[in-house]
Amino acid sequence: xxxxxWKGVVIARSDDTVVVEGNHYFPLDSIDPTVLRPSATTTxxxxxxxxxxxxxxxxxxxxxxxxxxxxxxxxxxxxIKGRVAFWKGVQVG
Length: 93
Prior knowledge:
Blueprint: E1 2-6, E2 9-14, E3 18-20, E4 23-27, E5 36-45, E6 49-58, E7 61-69, E8 83-86, E9 91-92
Antiparallel strand pairs: 1-2, 1-9, 3-4, 4-8, 5-6, 6-7, 7-8
């Protein structure tokens, strides 16, 4: 079982993560929906496509753009469709 924690709070837990480039991508339904806030930020990866972001809110504190996902990944990254990865101080393990 892999967990993602921020500020000591478990925000995601799953035994079905996909690891790409060292990042665990969690199924969206394994993430506490109350901590996710949509962000307007996007970035582009040459082989995965356009990434969209969520900010996290835990205990009234916000971690801007701390989670990302590929709504429509390129074919080479199709295994991460519907999944979310974390960074910016989120502990995954």
